[in-house]
Amino acid sequence: MFYSEQSNLNDGSISESNSKLSIPLIDLTGIHDDPILRDEVVKKVQNASEKWGFFQVINHGIPIHVLDEMIKGICRFHQQDAKVRKEYYTRDLTKKVVYLSNFSLFQDLSAEWRDTLAFFWAPHPPKADDLPPVCSDIVNEYTKQVMALASSLYELLSEGLGLDRFHLKEMGGAESVFHLCHYYPPCSEPELTIGTPKHSDASFITILLQDHIGGLQVLHDNQWIDVPPIHGAFVVNIGDLLQLVSNDKFTSVQHRVLAKHLGPRISVASIFRTCNDSLDGMEKVIGPIMELLSKESPSIYRNTSFKEYMTHRLANGLGISSLSPFKLCDL
């Protein structure tokens, strides 16, 4: 898989990785028991969401052995014989379990250096028989645990916006949940390709589990910042939908994954958003939260349906802002 547009690898005037900067690391210890510690964490989450759009969390309550086994389970699937994996191969995204290479294979000019096993979990989880036997147990357990973590993060994010702690959850922030379980093979010529091109997420929030290989980078102040793996940590990032409903108080930033000589690299991106992929969900209208608007802070975005947002996103490619068409013209 060769990346045909070298300008997208170097991104023109964007500086290459700055190892002196790092995304915020937030310790969630005490958020359920100590009001003072919780207030401190809320401030850190707010600051990270405003200035970076990315942060890592530790002491989140999920046992490390669950995270390790999830990485191993996804690796086991991808390293099975091709005949076994082929049983799950489909480009039909209405399926609950999807195995494929490059979701946008027939839209983009180039392919990405990865394969993906996807589980579309909420609002209707896969049947037990649909799950690959080599990872079915751990995927069930991991999903239960990461959904509980998302619930806690939504509360912290709500408080960071000055809202009631349940506001974002009551909006349906976990109405749609799916996992993208990526497998990046070792690459002999990583300078000629890309693991995942630069993009922002079509999510409310994304919770990412990554193994020890590395390669994830975040665009911050016009330079690429490495996000080094921390064993037992999750990477959390703000998606486009949360930037929209927060009226730009929280920011969704572009990120990418470099191809590496080392590997395979395994990551699990759990995507949480307010709109599911049913017909009703696609027509659901979202817009800035009324409680965040005032004369001094007017609405930046018009209301839009999730279908309209996704239509624009798919038509224009990952590297182009998916929110700019929905900004109000008089701002």
UniProtKB/TrEMBL annotation:
Its cofactor is Fe cation. The keyword Ion transport does not apply. Residues 173-276 form the Fe2OG dioxygenase domain. Transmembrane segments: none annotated. Belongs to the iron/ascorbate-dependent oxidoreductase family. GO terms for molecular function: dioxygenase activity; metal ion binding. This is Fe2OG dioxygenase domain-containing protein. Gene3D superfamilies: B-lactam Antibiotic, Isopenicillin N Synthase, Chain. Keywords: Iron, Metal-binding, Oxidoreductase. InterPro entries: DIOX_N (IPR026992), IPNS-like_FE2OG_OXY (IPR044861), IPNS-like_sf (IPR027443), Oxoglu/Fe-dep_dioxygenase_dom (IPR005123). The lineage of its organism: Eukaryota, Viridiplantae, Streptophyta, Embryophyta, Tracheophyta. The keyword Calcium does not apply.
